[in-house]
Amino acid sequence: MSHDHDHDNELDPFAARVRALETILTQKGLIDPAAIDVIVDTYETKIGPRNGAKVVAKAWVDPDFAALLKRDATVAIGSLGYTGRQGEHMQAVFNTVDTHNLVVCTLCSCYPWSVLGLPPVWYKAPPYRSRAVIDPRGVLEEFGLTLPATTKIRVWDSTAELRYLVVPTRPKGTEDWSEERLADLVTRDAMIGTELAGAPK
Amino acid sequence: MNRREAKSVTALPAGVDAPVFAEPWQAEAFAMTVALHDKGLFSWSEWADALSAEVKKPGAASDGHDYYEHWLAALEKLLSAKGVAGKSDVDTLAAAWERAAHATPHGKPILLENDPSRTEGRGGPTG
């Protein structure tokens, strides 16, 4: 970016090791550099929580779709064109007045990429991974979400084979809203379970 | 205040989100893993096990900034275990890339051929 002074290029050790792997894998015909660029672009710009928001909004307005989402989330989500490329199964967990759902991956960082894109940094960091299970209520409070003591919190631990999508409750006062408008209320964090779907503005 | 300080050791990272990839090599390491899985080199469970083994090692940063360093280490170990890329080959080639980068004038693309110690007669694939 800055061209105000001359200096040589440097690769830090991690960048150099990635280049080394790329060189070996390309020479062995295991990867194609052009395909790598496509994957990066897809995950940086094309796949993201907008996908999940559309799933949630559809479930709010379409009881048949909601029923399918509850029964077989992989099929329901796939019917909107969002399919996981790791062959993982999806399960949708629905918030109710009595129960709030929270998703974590204590093992590493399994996450429903096809509907939420790549996980935020905090999702992958050790404090969230360890504390979401031990003290979910405290964790939610740190996210600014204080739930009534009567609300039960269920924590879902993702695996490579099974990923979870939280379906938040539909905010009050949105009864006549379109699916598109409703989708704007559904944030990434609401689908992880660290916040609620937004109140109508 | 005290409570806040006491919590700081295990506190969650700040709510402000960092970009998904902090540096290009992280995106490349991620994409290579996805591509190799697509190719059938390993199952996603195998990958999750490899990554898990790295991220649960003591010393992982609580703000998660070193996540892709663990990712890269997991990928290297898996590739080594599969006999695709041994550590010493990666070490040698990584050193060559570092030398090549250093020898490349600023603003020019870094090519492995630019490594001044390169012994092979001609450059490899230029991709």
From TrEMBL, chain A:
Identify the residues that the record assigns to the Nitrile hydratase alpha/Thiocyanate hydrolase gamma domain, covering every copy: 14-194
EC class name? lyase
According to UniProt, the reaction catalysed is: an aliphatic primary amide = an aliphatic nitrile + H2O
Keywords from the UniProt entry = Iron, Lyase, Metal-binding
Any GO MF annotation of the entry: transition metal ion binding
Residues that bind Fe(3+), according to the entry?
105, 108-110
Q: Known Pfam families for this protein? A: NHase_alpha
Q: Tell me its EC number(s), please.
A: 4.2.1.84
NCBIfam families annotated for this entry? Answer: nitrile_alph
Can you tell me which family this protein belongs to?
Answer: Belongs to the nitrile hydratase subunit alpha family.
Report the protein name in the record.
Answer: nitrile hydratase
